[in-house]
Amino acid sequence: MLEAVIFDLDGVITDSASYHYQAWKIIADELKIDFDETYNEKLKGVSRMGSLELILDNGPGKDAFSQEEKERLCTRKNDLYKELIKQITPSDLLPGIGELLKELKANNVLIGLASVSLNAPAIINSLGIKDMFDYMADAAVVKESKPAPDIFLDNIKGLKVNPANSIGVEDAEVGIEAIHRAGMKACGIGSVETLSKADLLLSSTAELSLDKLKAML
Ligand code: BG6
Ligand code: MG
């Protein structure tokens, strides 16, 4: 029996993953470090500081800057990002997500949010879907970022469900690993190059349905 579906946010519920990329691209260009959409795949699901360090790996290395300088770069990236996400409205739900959330609710399947983004509550509000969630993990209190299972386990605890009866939906390789480490089945949204370990791989959220998710268990 499917008890819960636990969603990643960026790149699954809305296309904010592209805003993360745009903001980091400005920082990388300023630092004169090569950074493109292919390399950006590595950053998906990774914390803010972790993302900066991955970008620096492509240039002078993560030890080339002091902790204070890195904090300053992270703050600047977040300021750029916050400007970009101001434009998010309910029409920015990715295809099929609004319908799926309603279908899950109508069938008493619990809905959770497992985003490591500190901006997640603001985005969920802008999308107008806060009331759809039975539980949302607080990224500020979940210590270990993906691929650690913590953010999914926090949902499992908050929703009081059995991980074996729950599915996680992710667009990031580290996210698929986190879902598996939490003892859940993983539905990947994206391409086989990065998400080959997903139990069900869909190329777009438009292909998601309750029946497909149920068939995974
Ligand atoms: C994840 C994104 O959801 O959140 C990452 O996939 C991002 O790209 C991470 O770095 C942290 O987000 P924020 O908004 O707290 O910087
Ligand atoms: Mg994501």
Layout of secondary structure:
Layout (H helix, E strand, L loop, with lengths): L3 E4 L8 H15 L6 H4 L7 H10 L9 H19 L11 H10 L3 E4 L6 H8 L7 E2 L13 H10 L6 E5 L2 H9 L3 E5 L2 H4 L4 E3 L7 H6 L2
Parallel strand pairs: 1-2, 1-4, 2-3, 4-5, 5-6
Helix pairs in contact: 1-4
The site of magnesium ion has 9 residues, from loops.
Radius of gyration: 17 Å
Shape: globular
Q: Within the largest sheet, what's the order of strands?
A: 3-2-1-4-5-6
User: For the terminal residues, how far apart are their CA atoms?
Assistant: 8 Å
Helix-residue proportion: 40-55%
Bound molecules: 6-O-phosphono-beta-D-glucopyranose, magnesium ion
Q: Structural class, judged by helices and strands?
A: alpha/beta
Nearest-integer average pLDDT: 97
Can you say what the CATH homologous superfamily of the largest domain is?
HAD superfamily/HAD-like
Number of helices: 10
What is the CATH domain class of the largest domain?
Alpha Beta
Under the CATH scheme, the architecture of the largest domain is 3-Layer(aba) Sandwich
Series of secondary-structure elements, N-terminal to C-terminal: EHHHHHEHEHEHEHEH
Q: State the major sheet.
A: 6 strands, parallel
Provide a descriptive summary of the structure in words:
The chain is an alpha/beta fold and 217 residues long. The termini are close together. The longest helix is centred in the middle third of the chain and has 19 residues, at 67-85. It has helices at 16-30, 37-40, 48-57, 67-85, 97-106, 120-127, 150-159, 173-181, 192-195, 210-215; strands at 4-7, 110-113, 135-136, 166-170, 185-189, 200-202. It has two domains: 4-15 and 89-215, HAD superfamily/HAD-like (Rossmann fold, 3-Layer(aba) Sandwich); 17-87, DNA polymerase, domain 1. 44% of the residues lie in helices and 11% in strands. Strand 4 (166-170), helix 8 and strand 5 form a beta-alpha-beta unit. It has a six-stranded parallel β-sheet with strand order 3-2-1-4-5-6, with helices on both faces. It has ten helices and six strands. The radius of gyration is 17 Å and the shape is globular. Helix 1 (16-30) packs across helix 4. The structure holds 6-O-phosphono-beta-D-glucopyranose and magnesium ion. 6-O-phosphono-beta-D-glucopyranose binds at residues 9-10, 17, 20, 43-48, 51, 78, 115-119, 172. The site of 6-O-phosphono-beta-D-glucopyranose has 18 residues, from helix 1 and helix 3.
